Amino acid sequence: MIRTDWTMAEARAIHALPFADLMHRAQSLHRAHFDPNAIETASLLSIKTGGCPEDCGYCSQSAHHDTGVKATKLMGTDEVLAAARRAKASGAQRFCMGAAWRSPKDRDMDRLCDMVRGVSELGLETCMTLGMLSPEQVARLKAAGLDFYNHNIDTSPEYYAQIASTRTMEDRLDTVEQVRKGGIKVCCGGILGMGEAEEDRIALLVTLATLPSHPDSVPVNLWNEIEGVPVQARAQAVDPFALLRIVALARILMPASVVRLSAGRTGMSDELQALCFLAGANSIFVGDQLLTTGNPAAWKDQELLARLGMHIAPARARPRVAAE
Ligand code: SAM
Ligand code: DTB
Ligand code: SF4
C-alpha cells in the first residue's frame, strides 16, 4: 500500500522501533518494490555556480555568505554536453544539472532546453535543479524532454525559517507541485546535520510522504561542511544509526520511491553505506564532484558495489504493490 496519509505519531513509532525490526521492515518493503541488489547512479554538474541571491544557511553558493566560491556565468551547451559524455562513460545513468539561482531567467530558457535535448540524445536521463519555476518554465522544460526536477525542502516546516529567510517552505512546495502537475518527475529530499532535532528529521519525511503523490526520488544529504556559512556554527555530526533510521523510515513511508544517499558519502565507511543500502537506499551520485564539494572517487564506488555483489541499473519500482 502506498499511503499519503501518514501521521507524525505513526512515523515516530516506526522510527523508534528496535533496530532489527526497523531494518527488517524497511528491507522487506525494499524487496517488494525494487531489486535490492540494483543501485541507480546519477552524476551532477554545476552549470552555473555561486552568486545566488538566496540566503540558504548551508550553501556555499549563496552571495550572502563569504565562502570563497567564485561566481560563474551559465555554461555553454557544448561544455555541458562534453561533461555529460564523460559522465556517461564513467557509468552514470542520469545527468543532473544544477544552477545557483532563485529561479531561471526567461532569457536562459532556450539554452537550458538545448541542454536537456542534447543530454537526452546521449541516452542519459535528464535532471535539473534551477530553483523556483513558473508553470510556463515547467512546460518548456517538459517539452524539451526533462525527466526529473530536483527541488529539496531540506528540513522540517518548523525548522525551515532557521535555515533560509529569502524563501519559505510554501515556496518550495509550490514549485514541487508545479513540477508534478507539469508531468516532470519530482526529486525532493533534505539535509541531515544542520542542528535540527530528531523530530525535524521525521517531520521532513512526513511532509514528503503526505504530498499528493510521493516524490519519485528522495535525496538524503548529510550536511557537507562549508566554512563561512551560518549552519557551520550549529551543525552536528549525524550518528550513523540516526542516519540509518531516517533512510529506513524514508523507505517505509515512501516504499516505491528511489532513496538517494546523496551528499556526505565521502565521510562514510563502506560498512555504513552498505547498511544504508540494506535500509532501503538505492541510488547514489557518482563522480568526484557534487556541486562545489567532493564525492567518492569512481573506482571506490565500483569497488564497493562489486564487494557487495550489487550492480548499476535503473531503480524502477516493480509494478505490483506487494504486501509486506
Ligand atoms: N538553487 C537550486 C535550489 O536551491 O534548489 C539548486 C541548487 S541547490 C545547491 C541543491 C541542493 O543542494 C539544496 O537544496 C541542498 O539540499 C543541497 N545542498 C546544498 N549545500 C549543501 C551542503 N553543504 N550539504 C549538503 N547538501 C547541500
Ligand atoms: C541533492 O539533494 N543533493 C545534490 C543535488 N540534490 C543537487 C547537491 C548536493 C550538494 C552538496 C554541496 C555542494 O557540492 O555544494
Ligand atoms: Fe542558492 Fe540553491 Fe544554494 Fe539556496 S541552495 S543559496 S537557492 S544555490
Describe the structure.
By secondary structure, the protein is α/β, with parallel strands linked by helices. Helix content is 39%, strand content 14%. It is built from 12 helices and 10 strands. Strands 1, 2, 3, 4, 5, 6, 7, 8, 9 and 10 form a 10-stranded parallel sheet that branches. Strand 6 (190-192), helix 8 (198-209) and strand 7 (217-222) form a beta-alpha-beta unit. Helix 1 packs across helix 8. The chain is globular. It binds S-adenosylmethionine, 6-(5-methyl-2-OXO-imidazolidin-4-yl)-hexanoic acid and iron/sulfur cluster (SF4). Residues 37-256 form the Radical SAM core domain. Keywords: 2Fe-2S, 4Fe-4S, Biotin biosynthesis, Iron, Iron-sulfur, Metal-binding, S-adenosyl-L-methionine, Transferase. Its cofactor is [2Fe-2S] cluster; [4Fe-4S] cluster. InterPro entries: Aldolase_TIM, BATS_dom, Biotin_synth/BioAB, Biotin_synthase, Elp3/MiaA/NifB-like_rSAM, rSAM, rSAM_sf.
